[in-house]
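Entry for the shared binder. Reason: the reviewer on the internal report wants the predicted structure included alongside the sequence.
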Amino acid sequence: MKNQPLLDKIDLHLIRVLHTVLTERSVSRAAVRLGMHQPAVSAALKRLRELAGDPLLVRSGTGMVPTDAGLHMIEPSASILRASEVLFSDARGFEPRTAQHTFRIAASDYLDPLFLPQIVAQIKREAPLAHVEIYPLSAASDYRQGLAQGDIDVVIGNWMKAPDDLHLGRLFADEVVCLVNQDHPAVRRDWDVDSWLAAEHVAPTPTHPGARGVIDELLDSMGLQRNIVARCPFFGLLPVMVASSLLVLTTGRQYCERYAQRLPVKILPCPVQFPAMVYYQLWHERSHASSAARWLRERVKAVAGELQKQ
């Protein structure tokens, strides 16, 4: 093989350091993610630079960015790591009790607040040696790329129209309702569509590039627009904002019910007749046949089913 002497100098750990440094764009963040000391990551990066004959990561302003050569190494290194992860584990089948697999889940906290904690708890009960990493969905993140590159195993969320280029599994549907302060005027008298639209609304910050949110996409399709006066990327804070103001939060009933007995809030029917919010888990073709990824998806589905019964 033409490059055999070079390949003999590269091990899988070095590939993992390469991919992590290039995607994190930071030696210190890469060290945290890898569970290594920063000097060790710096030493590995120095070795990688010597092997590549390229700096791979250079300073830009207050941060760092990959060079052209570094950018071209991101996907090949991710592919190598994906292949190595399933090379033997999938051949043997997935054994939860002994697996030291890392499961990577991307989700927003607009889910039922019990959902992600119970997924983590169930994974750790059945696969005690496994690791779990939860990633947020945000306007700055690209979950499609994360799934394609193997940085994420599954994405959990709701969409008005689920992406058709990914595998999906339906988890549950939830009625759209409004959460308001118990002293909100709408509690004392019914509101119509016009008064609901004119009320002051709080809404989550979009969870992925180009997103507007299911509620506002549906309103657009009806030719309507509500009066959003506050946005927040932390969905778990929205009920607290509602409890101390006259803001209106419109979302799924299951989420609202978790707060209705703990905060001075009320759940009201929404005067706009929205279809149910449908929650899915999405995954890429690359992990469709993986026994470990299939086991994870089964755990996600099981937790969703249990929460529906509560």
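Summary line for the report: The domain at 176-275 is CATH 3.40.190.10 (D-Maltodextrin-Binding Protein; domain 2).
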